[in-house]
Amino acid sequence: MAMYVVGHKIPDSDSICGAIAIAYLKNKIGEAAIPTRLGEVSPETQFILDRFGFEAPELKMSYAGEEVYIVDHTEKTQAPDDIDQATVVGVVDHHKLGDLTTSTPLECWIRPVGCSNTIVKMMYDFYQVEIPKDIAGLMLCAILSDTVIFKSPTCTTADIKCVEALAEIAGVEDYKELGMDMFKVKSAVEDTPARDLVMRDFKDFNMNGKLVGIGQLEVIDLSVFDDIKTDLEADIAKLKEEGGRHSVLLLLTDIMQEGSQMLIASDDEGIIETAYGIKPEQSRVWLDGVLSRKKQVVPPLQNAFA
């Protein structure tokens, strides 16, 4: 029976590219694996797939009775809804350890690096499996995306070394230019419905029993949101009520200014001041130097709820 390799709900490039790369590796070492996804691919991910000649993995939402290899998360809120009825056989992740548990021993690759695909590169090295040119391109782009072309505080020496090695395999001469092309795709928000933008890179977190949704839009110029910011604020307020969430936060991240404006819909905005030391004004706050949701946004917020 083949295992299914899948990332989190509302998959980003790391989840999609990681699923493809791990499934290929597993098949090469004699372990049957199929890459899948838990949602539609984002415009950035589609750009990457097109650039290196891949179709999106199969859309599969149910995994009851199946063997599952999890990529890019360990949170039940981000996993398949029926994950408790599946057998988790492995995890590759670079986030905080979540609440996903297993009934059997599993393979576990967790490292404090900027991207899951950096860990996947380490797996290829460990098993001494040659990385195909096209898969190297996928992995390269995922790392550039997650590390914001090395600007993110999550970026490590390991991420940079992996990008350099993967660029050589993929035949990419200027990987920073490729990274900027990806972020230009991310910055194209015109004529996109507010809900689609809010959900483009959105994750739910259980914070001391409170459900908190955090979305992030990374662009090269925040002015692209000037005409739609009020629509985004109205939509996160609706999303909060629809999901029974305590809070929904949307980070509008400017990778050139290296900071984020947070739009807030919350039962208690005081939690934001507790977490970040800045009082919101009109349900907005500027977080200077904040690029990473997992390292700079989630931990202080989790502490505030605790």
From TrEMBL:
Protein's UniProt keywords contain Hydrolase: yes
Residue stretches making up the DHHA2 domain: 179-305
Catalytic activity: diphosphate + H2O = 2 phosphate + H(+)
Keywords noted in UniProt: Hydrolase, Manganese, Metal-binding
EC number: 3.6.1.1
Enzyme kind, highest EC tier: hydrolase
Record GO terms (molecular function): inorganic diphosphate phosphatase activity; metal ion binding
UniProt cofactor(s): Mn(2+)
Domain of life: Bacteria
Entry GO terms, CC: cytoplasm
Any one Pfam family match given in the protein's UniProt record, by short name: DHHA2
Residue runs in coiled coils: none
SUPFAM superfamilies named in the record: DHH phosphoesterases (SSF64182)
Alphabetized PANTHER family for the sequence: BNIP - RELATED, MANGANESE-DEPENDENT INORGANIC PYROPHOSPHATASE-RELATED
Entry protein name: inorganic diphosphatase
Organism: Pseudoalteromonas holothuriae
